[in-house]
């Protein structure tokens, strides 16, 4: 039995809503046999954070959308990752992203785009959501559809500004984040298996 591979979820959440999305993404990743998931709050830029991310096959980035982009805490993490970038330490890792905000649109796409660029600068391989758009995309769509917010680049979630994290984001948005975590884990597992095969170390 080959070693477990790790999917790390590197996220910030100011008030707990995006943290729920992060936990859903981690649950999705660890639902795949052969994969373990780690949650890393990027607010504290500790050695443990960098070591955890260094050991991961895949990193899923997560941030609320604040003022139309990733939060300042997440951006501080992104800038601090320049010390990894210098040696291309994350090159060829799998990457993906999720975001949550109060508006149905809320300019979430800009946050996901920033995360995809962060991954590109690190030479990582970006995994998309891989789901058709739900809900208002078709006349018989439902608000509990997977990918109800219709994103492609990553997982989107919406939390009303006056709802606490115990009630938001919706179950549909959490299941969408779970789907992303599972998809990233499956992709990372295929990559790790292929590498072992090429190295002649396949079990
Ligand atoms: C400083 C700030 C800026 C925000 N900017 C946006 C925004 O641009 N678009 C949006 O839809 N919601 C915006 N919101 C709402 C948050 O995205 C929303 O409350 C989200 O659920 C917070 O997630 P968190 O609990 O993980 O921090 C903003 C909230 C704050 C505090």
UniProtKB/TrEMBL annotation:
Ranges for domain Flavodoxin-like: 7-185
A GO term from the CC aspect: membrane
UniProt xrefs under Pfam families: FMN_red
GO molecular function, one term: NAD(P)H dehydrogenase (quinone) activity
Cited InterPro entries: Flavodoxin/NO_synth, Flavoprotein-like_sf, FMN_Rdtase-like_dom
Protein name: FMN reductase
Source species: Planomonospora sphaerica
């Amino acid at each position: 039995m080959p070693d477990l591979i790790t999917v790390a979820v590197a996220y910030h959440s100011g008030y707990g809503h995006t943290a729920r999305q992060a936990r859903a993404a981690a649950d999705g990743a660890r639902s795949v046999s052969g994969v373990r998931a780690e949650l890393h709050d990027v607010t504290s830029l500790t050695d443990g954070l960098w070591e955890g991310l260094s050991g991961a096959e895949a990193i899923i980035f997560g941030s609320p959308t604040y003022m139309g982009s990733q939060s300042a805490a997440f951006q501080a993490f992104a800038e601090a990752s320049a010390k990894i970038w210098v040696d291309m330490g994350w090159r060829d890792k799998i990457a993906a992203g999720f975001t949550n905000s109060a508006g149905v649109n809320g300019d979430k796409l800009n946050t996901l785009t920033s995360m995809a660029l962060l991954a590109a600068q690190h030479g990582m391989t970006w995994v998309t959501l891989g789901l058709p758009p739900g809900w208002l995309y078709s006349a018989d769509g439902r608000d509990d559809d997977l990918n109800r917010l219709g994103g492609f680049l990553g997982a989107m979630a919406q939390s009303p500004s006056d709802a606490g994290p115990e009630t938001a984001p919706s179950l549909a948005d959490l299941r969408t984040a779970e789907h992303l975590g599972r998809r990233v884990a499956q992709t990372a597992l295929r990559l790790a298996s292929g590498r072992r095969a090429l190295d002649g170390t396949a079990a």
